[in-house]
Design goal:
By secondary structure, the protein is α+β, with helices and mostly antiparallel strands. The protein has six helices and five strands; from the N terminus they run ααααααβββββ. It starts with a helix and ends with a strand. The relative contact order is 0.16.
Length: about 180
């Protein structure tokens, strides 16, 4: 019995191969960390691309000027006198033609998807417009997309992630010293 105990104790005290277990464990930990960081980077790049596409669509939509509202009784002689005497003009911004703006924004996003370069470069599978809102001075767009992850990790059970972006844009007039055609400075 003493011989068997000595043999078991000598096997337990033998540290041969223990460093290789540590190296294999650290290697696996490094590979898993690298895979997770690659997935996070892929989602970040896709989110940035989706935001850029949404901004481009919103900028294209906000360029549609509502001429009727823009020239609607704002610049009369009475308004000129009030502005000159100190009741400064309160400018809400440049009025947008909402119907044309929505149409142009949707078309711009469809063109972005047709290019397909941004989608394949960032693993975006699709871009959908969830909402286009317009109050006459601001155009807001909310979009969503799915991102295919480069590494589908078995313990996460995720092969793709849904992301979304929301952008609101309004036009404003440039500050000038030219009032009603009279240059004051």
């Amino acid at each position: 019995m003493g011989v068997v105990l000595k043999i078991k104790r000598s096997l337990l005290d033998d540290e041969k191969g223990s460093i290789s277990i540590l190296i294999v464990g650290l290697f696996l930990l490094s590979v898993i960390t690298l895979m997770i960081l690659t997935d996070i980077s892929s989602v970040y790049l896709a989110k940035r691309t989706l935001t850029q596409a949404t901004e481009a669509a919103a900028q294209r939509g906000v360029r549609n000027l509502n001429l009727e509202k823009y020239y609607e009784e704002n610049y009369t002689a009475i308004r000129f006198g009030l502005n000159l005497l100190g009741d400064r003009e309160k400018d809400p911004g440049i009025p947008i033609d909402c119907e044309k703006g929505r149409s142009d924004a949707g078309e711009a996003l469809q063109n972005w998807v047709k290019l397909d370069y941004a989608l394949t470069r960032t693993n975006l599978t699709s871009i959908q417009i969830e909402e286009i809102s317009c109050d006459g001075y601001e155009l807001g767009i909310r979009t969503a997309a799915r991102v295919k992850l480069p590494f589908a990790l078995p313990f996460l059970n995720k092969s793709d992630v849904e992301i979304s972006s929301k952008v609101g844009i309004f036009d404003e007039r440039k500050i000038t010293t030219n009032y009603y055609g009279v240059n004051l400075g």
